[in-house]
Design a protein that fits this description.
Layout (H helix, E strand, L loop, with lengths): L1 E5 L3 H13 L4 E5 L11 E4 L1 H10 L1 H10 L1 E3 L2 E5 L2 E5 L4 E5 H15 L2 E3 L15 E4 L6 H4 L2 H4 L1 E15 L6 E8 L2 E9 L5 E7 L1 H6 L7 H11 L1 H4 L4 E2 L11 E8 L3 E3 L4 E4 L14 H19 L6 H31 L1 H6 L4 H9 L7 H7 L1 H14 L17 E3 L2 E3 L3 E3 L14 H12 L4 E3 L3 E2 L16 H17 L3 E7 L10 H4 L12 E2 L13 E2 L2 H21 L3 E6 L4 H6 L14 H18 L6 E6 L10 H14 L3 E5 L17 H11 L3 E3 L6 H9 L5 E4 L1 H5 L3 H8 L12 H16 L5
Length: 772
């Protein structure tokens, strides 16, 4: 085959040398616009897994690269006058120029034709090539020649950064955070050879402009950074190798995702690699890793399918299918880390104490979890757990400290024994809104199972406020009596507290039980529906009537009566349901609120009626007990509410006296397109807690203790609501404690023999030899 690699970065060079090594008969050229052995940039970071692959595919270049590596285990953070360090993180770095020079020499030794100082405008410049590799970087001319084919999605991120170096050598991956009069700056620092360290300075656009950095040349920017980071630099200078850039050298990161990676131009097959196909933010240092892994996978597929020209389409199809998975995983982690640094000032640096700030930074990508930190640096993590436990009010001794999810939490005069909440989940098993033995056993068993707060399903304020005929209600004394029965059982037999979530289904009411057809309208026995506007939930749903003032007054009175009845039950906690497209949510979302009166339009108008309801409830509910708000923090639909809107509403409820925001999302529109994944809704809780300054509950895809401990320890939420895992395991909290080796958590005395057996079985399983 005739192969041309456009762009002499890591992807193009490494693919070229692998192909020439495996099939010397191929004609392979690498065309690079820079001069021989002349490249820009400072250090790059590799993963151990990538080095394992490189040793497998080309031991010669891998050995030379490893000889040039600088390895370090520690991360050090300078923040608010503190210097914190943790170990066990295992990074390797190499100068970008050194890496490319090694790959260039290896290509030359194998017979790859290297062509320098040549600009390539298009893949069509090489009509005789069987395969053209577009490895020409972020601004790829190859990709840009076919925008309708490759479908590039390029987003310019808001932060500014400048990529510098210094001759001071650092023995840890160092992060230095500095507050100025106009905002925070952070430096990402790591050594990559025996003389030089990379020194990236990053800040927000607002701080960049306020300091006049946009008007400075490179020397001015360097002087500014040297002064700001003088403590960590200790008299050494910052240097640049980007003199070819005119004016300011401050850049914005561009996040790139392509819809397709390959194309046949009529003569040649064209495929993208490295930054031409995808980018990953420097916050996790994976751009070079992705490029090398691209080259290895394309080579692997050619080895599997064959090197004949007619096999190229199948090769490229499989290559893209496989690489998309790993690239998406890395890009997701890089996005999390990137977004953390973009908001670090107002969300974390201004609000968190240094130990929690350090923990938050270490887990910013969500690839490193609580127990993973224990494996990396047990001493540091146990020290952090002691700090967190003391901050939670516990006396800390020499025994193993309680991890964050099992520390107590106090709101008003209600103290929870731990941070785990059984999330409200509809059971569709009530008759006329009355709780029965099923609910007592269902909810009581979860209280015995160790959760700190037990919520029943959304409890409706009138018969016509129900989602289905099987939903719980709280509008009469018979219902109160059964609620008292539950509350008395939980308080007598466990340390758990009981919460009642009051709501009104609105346009999503009068539907079948879930197992008979979720969200489907009742075929008979339906009741009239009301909503903020006459917008049905489904095409075949009943069309709700737009509420007038008389409807609002009636529903408000219903919530007041139900709150009064909730007081009678002796419950510890009240929540107002303003999420998931139900009545009060329909006022908040512009997708469902089309009103042109005082209750539609602006955020203030859309929140007016839900706030009326809340204030009336707060006036009745005991002052020593909390009220939380369940909020849909993202509609996941164009034109709907976003996390920014949710933060505005959260501030309004906070100012009205709400104690906590229960941060969920979605279920407002059937056109929604949620981005699911582990802990996918936790960022909403993180944003509201740390920007608005109100406690939060995180919900959604939290399924193990490691998740909950990571969320709570990082300050992303104060409580974690566990839904489906509680349906599968009533004793979820007790079992998760045992799984992480925490034997001090008490079980009900009736179950103590089961506790011993469960913990013994876990210990046996952990020490059992793996099956052969």
């Amino acid at each position: 085959m005739r192969i041309v690699c456009i762009g002499g970065g890591p992807a193009g060079l490494y693919f070229a040398l692998l192909m020439k090594k495996l099939h010397p008969e191929h004609s392979i050229r690498v065309v690079e616009r820079n001069r021989p052995y002349d490249t820009f940039g400072w250090g790059v970071v590799f993963s151990d897994a990538t080095m394992v692959s490189m040793r497998e595919w080309d031991p010669e270049s891998a050995a030379e690269i490893e000889d040039a590596f600088n390895h370090w285990d520690d991360i050090e953070v300078l923040f608010k006058g503190t210097r914190q360090r943790t170990s066990g993180h295992g990074f390797v770095g190499i100068g970008r120029k050194k890496l490319l020079n090694i790959l260039q020499r290896r290509c030359e030794a194998l017979g790859v034709e290297l062509i320098f100082e040549t600009d390539v405008n298009s893949d069509l410049d090489y009509p005789d090539a069987d395969l053209v590799i577009g490895s020409d970087g972020l601004n790829s001319r190859i990709r840009n020649h076919y925008p309708e084919v490759f479908q590039p999605d390029m987003i310019t991120r808001p932060n500014r950064y400048i990529w510098l170096g210094t001759n001071k050598l650092f023995d840890a991956f160092t992060f230095d955070f500095r507050r100025t009069d106009h905002g925070w700056f952070q430096a990402h620092i790591y050594k990559f050879d025996d003389k030089t360290s990379t020194f990236i300075v990053e800040t927000t656009e607002e701080a960049y402009l306020a300091h006049g950095l946009d008007k400075m040349d490179q020397d001015g920017s360097i002087a500014f950074c040297e002064n700001l980071f003088s403590e960590v630099l200790e008299g050494t200078s910052l240097i640049t190798n980007a003199r070819h850039i005119r004016g300011s050298a401050w850049l914005n990161f561009n996040r790139l995702i392509c819809g397709k990676w390959s194309h046949f131009n009529g003569n040649s097959h064209v495929v993208l690699m490295g930054d031409a196909a995808h980018t990953a933010h420097f916050a996790i240092g994976s751009g070079t890793k992705l490029a090398i892994d691209d080259a290895i996978e394309l080579t692997r597929q050619l080895q599997i399918h064959g090197h004949e020209k007619d096999k190229i389409p199948a090769v490229l199809e499989t290559y893209e299918e496989i690489r998309r998975v790993d690239v998406a995983r890395i890009q997701n982690a890089a996005r999390n880390a990137m977004e953390w640094f973009e908001v670090v000032g107002r969300r974390y640096a201004d609000t968190l104490d240094p130990p929690q700030f350090m923990y938050s930074m270490l887990t910013r990508s969500q690839r490193i979890s609580h127990e993973n930190l224990r494996l990396r640096d047990k001493t540091w993590l146990e020290g952090y757990e002691r700090w967190f436990a003391e901050k939670s009010g516990l006396a800390v001794g020499n025994d193993r400290c309680l991890p964050p999810m099992f520390t107590p939490y106090r709101l008003r005069d209600v103290q929870l024994i731990n941070r785990i909440v059984m999330s409200p989940m509809a059971m569709y098993s009530a008759e006329d809104g009355v709780m029965n033995d099923f609910h007592i056993v269902h909810l009581g068993s979860r209280a015995l199972g160790g959760a700190g707060l037990i919520f029943a399903e959304m409890t409706c304020v009138t018969p016509d406020a129900r989602i289905t005929p099987g939903c719980l209600g709280l509008w009469n004394e018979e219902q109160v009596a059964q609620w008292k029965r539950l509350v008395d059982f939980v308080h007598t037999n466990s340390a758990a507290k009981v919460g009642i979530q009051l709501g009104h289904a609105g346009r999503k009411g009068a539907t079948k039980l879930a197992w008979e057809g979720i969200d489907q309208p009742l075929p008979e026995g339906e009741w009239p529906l009301i909503s903020a506007s006459s917008v049905p939930y489904l095409k075949n749903s009943q069309v709700p009537r737009t509420m007038d003032r008389a409807d609002m007054d009636r529903v408000k009175a219903d919530f007041i009566r139900s709150t009064e009845l909730a007081v009678e039950t002796g419950a510890d906690w009240l929540e107002l349901h303003c999420a998931h497209g139900y009545l009060l949510s329909s006022f908040l979302s512009p997708l469902t609120n089309l009103r042109d009166d005082d209750y539609g339009g602006s955020h203030e108008n859309r929140a007016r009626y839900p706030l009326e309801i809340f204030r009336a409830m707060r006036a009745i509910w005991p002052a020593d007990k909390p009220i939380s708000i369940r909020l849909s923090c993202h509609d996941w639909t164009d034109g709907g509410n976003t996390p920014e809107d949710a933060a505005i509403f959260a501030r309004m409820f906070k100012e009205a006296g709400a104690d906590l925001i229960d941060c969920s999302s979605g279920q407002v529109s059937k056109q929604e397109k949620p981005v699911y994944g582990r802990l996918f809704q936790t960022p909403f809780s993180d944003k509201i807690r740390n920007e608005i300054g109100i406690p939060t509950i995180a919900v959604g895809a939290i399924s193990e203790a490691d998740h909950a401990n990571s969320i709570i320890a990082a300050g992303r939420a104060d409580l974690c609501a566990i839904a489906r895992p509680h349906l599968a395991d009533p004793a979820w909290s007790l079992h998760e404690a045992a799984k992480i080796g925490l034997t001090s958590i008490p079980w009900p005395k009736q179950y103590l023999s089961g506790k011993t057996q469960y913990e013994t079985n876990l210990a046996r399983a952990a020490t059992a030899a793996p099956a052969k």
